[in-house]
Amino acid sequence: MPRRNEVPVYRPDIYSPQAILDPYPHYAKLRELGPVVWLPRHRAYALPRYAECKAVLLDDKTFVSGDGVALNPIANRLSRGTTLNSDGEDHARRRALVAHRLTPRALRAMRDVVDRQAAEIVDAALARRTVDGVEVAAALPAAVVPDLVGWPVEGRENLLRWGAATFDILGPLNGQAVRAVPDSLGMARFAHTVAKQRKVLPGSMGDDLLRAADAGELAHAECPALMIDYLAPSLDTTLSAIASALHLFATHPGQWQLLKDDPGLIPNAVNEIVRYESPLRAFSRKVARDAEVAGTALSAGSRVLVLYASANRDALEWDDPDTFDIRRDAARQLGFGHGTHGCAGQGLARLETQAMLRALIARVDRIEPAGPPEWARNNIIHRLGRLPLELIPA
After folding, report:
1. Spatial CB neighbours of 22, under 8 Å, sequence gap ≥ 6
2. Helix residue ranges, H only, 252-345
3. Is pLDDT of 226 > 60?
4. 296-317 in b/e burial notation, b at 16+ Cβ within 10 A?
5. pLDDT at 375 over 90
6. pLDDT tier, 240 (very low <50, low <70, confident <90, very high otherwise)
7. CA 206 – CA 359 distance, rounded (Å)
8. DSSP 3-state assignment of 381?
9. How far lies 109's CA from each of 105, 129, 149, in Å?
């Protein structure tokens, strides 16, 4: 089995500002080097290919999240008490507390309301015609998710910024993460205040958590972290997917026409969008016991970096992976994670993204670029920061 000094080494920083803005050349070089690549800057083994990423995500007893998924110890310490930072029965217990809110049946009951909100958002965008696609993409999750989680109306104007920061600190301890600390702490302070003063909306997920704490099913101190746990991912992954959809259909008009001609492609289109522009770049896992991945020996206590976005462009798994094609069977994409720690809010993200696509194809003839797009800088979330578009009415 290869030892560390025999494992391929990749020295460039995949979390540099330029690599965050354009990560795909780095992913391609990592995949070329092999299934396991040592990153000396981050003292972690990168997994850039699909097969190894999926295998590690499915083995949550060997590759654990309970010691954190960040590449820095400070964020791993701060994120204790979340579903993201837990394993086994502890993880299952936390997810079960709010699982009923995210079942297929519960989501189906939301569909009409979400469809109506999406239609209103697209109608308002069409009235302006020239829009920032990121603002259009943010509107639906910003309307749906805070109500579901139970955040009071006061303070919601900060949630998108705070949510992005809670992801940003989960990379290495670089300048990007350090700059995100004040906003991440702002989110934590707000959540503690909301829980302590019981300002959550009646009948919401937050209300469920506080009632469960009252009944002794969890500690009251756990409630704020769990509220953040479901808010931040549900906002940022959905915003990323919807904005990427707008960008991809603006730059691939043939694919847009395919979707308009066959709305039945919408669910698969969402999978292809998430495969092609994965909202999550990477999370780490700690190796709990001596293990082997693709013939490489990994000692207990080391860290692997699961590169979701790279796995979704792996030519060993996908035909012509750098081509965006909504006819592709992309259901096995890893953009929402996989296994026990697969994104709990992915059903909601799919519901909202599909609602926006239905509203768009019914009302918009063409989506055209109206200026160069700008990508946001975030260690973990890959999404657009600005997207000038012109919407041509049907």
Report:
1. 375
2. 253-261, 266-276, 308-311
3. yes
4. bbbeeebbbbbbbbbbbbbeeb
5. yes
6. very high
7. 30
8. strand
9. 6, 32, 16
CB 311 within 8 A of CB 31: no
Which CATH number, 1.10.630.10, 2.30.30.30, 3.40.50.720, 2.60.120.1130, labels domain 4-393? 1.10.630.10
Token pair for residue 297? Answer: 């020996």
Residue 50 region by backbone torsions, left for phi larger than 0, else alpha for psi between -120 and 50, else beta: alpha
Is the pTM higher than 0.85? The answer reads: yes
- Closest C-alpha among 315, 354, 312, 316 to residue 331: 312
Give backbone dihedrals phi and psi of 158, rounded to 5 degrees, phi first: -95, -10
DSSP code string of 57-79: HH-TTTEESTT-SSSSHHHHHHT
Read off the tokens for 387.
Answer: 């997207």
Give the pairing of strands 303-306 and 44-47.
parallel
**Strand 283-287 to strand 388-393: parallel, antiparallel, or no bridges (unpaired)?**
unpaired
- Residue 218: pLDDT band by 50, 70, 90 thresholds? confident
Give CA 249 to chain center in angstroms: 20
Strand positions, DSSP E, the chain: 37-39, 44-47, 63-64, 130-132, 283-287, 291-293, 296-298, 303-306, 364-369, 374-375, 384-386, 388-393
Query: For the CA atoms of 105, 164, 281, 247, what is the dihedral angle to 10 degrees?
Result: 80
Pull the structure tokens for residue 117.
């909100």
Show me where the domains of the chain are located: 4-393
Q: What is the pLDDT of residue 87?
A: 85
User: Following CA atoms 260, 350, 235, 222 in sequence, which dihedral angle do they give, to the nearest 10 degrees?
Assistant: 170
**pLDDT tens-digit map of 164-186:** 999 999 999 999 999 999 999 99
Which stretches of 34-174 are DSSP H helices? 50-58, 73-78, 88-96, 104-128, 133-149, 159-168
